[in-house]
Amino acid sequence: MSDKVYVFDTTLRDGEQVPGCQLSTPEKIEVAKELEILGVDIIEAGFPISSPMDFNSVIEISKAVSYPIICALTRSVEKDIDFAADALKYAKRKRIHTGIGSSDYHIKYKFKSDREKILERAVAATKYAKKYVEDVEFYCEDAGRTDNEYLARMVEAVIKAGATVVNIPDTTGYCLPEEYGAKIKFLKENVKGIDNAIISCHCHNDLGLATANTMAGVLNGARQVEVTINGIGERAGNTSLEEVAMILKTHKDVDLHTNIDSKHIYALSLLVSKMMRMPVQPNKAIVGRNAFAHSSGIHQDGVIKHRENYEILDPEDVGIPQSSIILTARSGKAALKYHLDRLGYSLEEARVEEVYDDFLKMADAKKDVTDDDLIILIEGSLPEG
Ligand code: KIV
Ligand code: ZN
């Protein structure tokens, strides 16, 4: 039996803190219900101390969903933890996510403190959260730039204090995959009690490495991934849920699985993009407009002969009905014939050759050729009405 990787969705917390992406409580409830249908294991519903609306959203999301664990974020501050515990009171399954900066940048410039005092605060916050809930996740903020020996001390101390999940965020998106993977391996090999907790990857995409780093973490023993729909999140975003879910589904060789029902991915991507007014880049992996669109002649010919010549994923698996063959001036005769057949014109090869020359002139002039353009090409005009 393959190992399970827990999917912790933070679209409604790390994603929602992006300027312009704020959602109302009813909108958050709608997204949370869809996340439940998608099969995420944990929903990070908000940061309750941050505003009355965020506090209320965590309450309402807790009431609205049943299966996923509802998680609330805090700093290592007692008042934050009190607020989080109160906001989680209706959750059927609940988790407090507390933590503190662990890198020397944060310790020196953010907290104006020292490593030992920060370690004490980490342990105290974990113990305090533990008074309210059994399930406590601890984040070592900026772990990506934290010295591994010190990180291991912090992780060991919070596990001893009761943390059930230890989150190793690459907060600034700094790490290389080898480096992040080695960090997780180091913790696995050097922290006493590490097998009593789940290691979680929380990566940011500043250098475009969030998914690669998350995968490196998982391949080195992490069993929870912190992700968002469409990879939305602070600055360049977070690791995208759809990418990790489809990597694990496609690469049977790594022998890991998630609970994600991938057929719901595309609908949720559209919903989040629309609600958060955040367009998805056309070439975004899995859910971008061009993710299953073939436009060059060689690729089109290959896909028409056999889909898997140029597709490693089945679009239906992520809820996209089919791949598309786009007609442009780079298209070949196979693509033209494919579309003419689809429109009901079964032309002899010689006739396709003739039409192809006219098609190329049209495509050069128009960039994209539509069904109506093809009908005009064959019939001379569109039918009446
Ligand atoms: O990026 C980060 O470090 C975070 C933590 C608060 C988990 O979002
Ligand atoms: Zn983050």
TrEMBL record:
<keyword id="KW-0100">Branched-chain amino acid biosynthesis</keyword>
<feature type="binding site">
    <location>
        <position position="238"/>
    </location>
    <ligand>
        <name>Mn(2+)</name>
    </ligand>
</feature>
<keyword id="KW-0432">Leucine biosynthesis</keyword>
<keyword id="KW-0012">Acyltransferase</keyword>
<feature type="binding site">
    <location>
        <position position="204"/>
    </location>
    <ligand>
        <name>Mn(2+)</name>
    </ligand>
</feature>
<protein>
    <recommendedName>
        <fullName>2-isopropylmalate synthase</fullName>
        <ecNumber>2.3.3.13</ecNumber>
    </recommendedName>
</protein>
<comment type="function">
    <text>Catalyzes the condensation of the acetyl group of acetyl-CoA with 3-methyl-2-oxobutanoate (2-ketoisovalerate) to form 3-carboxy-3-hydroxy-4-methylpentanoate (2-isopropylmalate).</text>
</comment>
<comment type="similarity">
    <text>Belongs to the alpha-IPM synthase/homocitrate synthase family. LeuA type 1 subfamily.</text>
</comment>
<keyword id="KW-0464">Manganese</keyword>
<feature type="binding site">
    <location>
        <position position="14"/>
    </location>
    <ligand>
        <name>Mn(2+)</name>
    </ligand>
</feature>
<comment type="pathway">
    <text>Amino-acid biosynthesis; L-leucine biosynthesis; L-leucine from 3-methyl-2-oxobutanoate: step 1/4.</text>
</comment>
<keyword id="KW-0479">Metal-binding</keyword>
<keyword id="KW-0028">Amino-acid biosynthesis</keyword>
<feature type="binding site">
    <location>
        <position position="202"/>
    </location>
    <ligand>
        <name>Mn(2+)</name>
    </ligand>
</feature>
<feature type="domain" description="Pyruvate carboxyltransferase">
    <location>
        <begin position="5"/>
        <end position="266"/>
    </location>
</feature>
<comment type="subunit">
    <text>Homodimer.</text>
</comment>
<dbReference type="GO" id="GO:0003852">
    <property type="term" value="F:2-isopropylmalate synthase activity"/>
</dbReference>
<keyword id="KW-0963">Cytoplasm</keyword>
<keyword id="KW-0808">Transferase</keyword>
